[in-house]
Amino acid sequence: MCSSDLVDATSKAKLNQPLLVRKATTGHLEVNFAPDLVRLLREAKYFLALDLEIPELAKTMYAKVEIFRRWTEAMDMIVAMNNTVLSNLLPVEFPLIQPYIDQFNKSVNRGEQELDWESEGVDEFIEESDELVRIVYEIYGVMKTNLNTTQELINGWWATSMMERKPRPTDTKELEAIQKPTHQKVYGLIKDGSKEITVLLKETNKILKIAAMHPDWVSYMNFTNNLVVEGLAKLVTHAMEWLVDQVDQSSIDNNELAPLIEIKLDLVDNKVQFAPSLN
Questions:
Q1: In CA terms, which of 129, 143, 179, 265 is 20 to 30 Å from 166?
Q2: How many whole angstroms separate alpha carbon 25 and alpha carbon 83?
């Protein structure tokens, strides 16, 4: 077999490979246009520019170079969207979007099992797969945007101080009065945030088109509720840590804090009395 025949045979084998391959461990897709074919097309371009002879198959392939480029670019986009979704879905999210992923996989399976780079119907395959993967990607985008917004709202609760003080000591009534505006602000954030989270959940449910009592949706609601509970727990924890810092001697020394509460000590009828009472 001469060298040109060998090139033709090798290139033919590469062209008969499936359009896409999938990693079994991750489900990620990859465009299966062999690097050898890319090199052959590049060399064919240079040889033809110099009016040099090239193997017949190389000529035939180079005549389709723009088609190959269009196909690979389109499939690169499909692959990127699919792989992004699979890489970033949480375990609780995957069952919700799986029906749409299954529809996409049913279509894209043709590119893994049936179609190669010389097949008829590649354009139709790309069009159908692109449409289905964009549906998946849109749903994924709404889910992730709404979840991230939910997390930001919750983080805003515990990032806001729930307790404050004046730089000087105060009596208990004044200290309590100082806390009221702060508490009202935090409670307002929680109330408004809870309403917004409810709206976000409804939006996610709407795009998924899933029944409110579906087990997968109930699991997702429980997941979101747990995020809320964790946020409230962090809020309380941070408030308690702040309070401990106000009365811990080492923290007082390190931060040069004044006493938090002013307590008066009097001697009345030979008895020590505190105001306010320590009882």
A1: 265
A2: 12
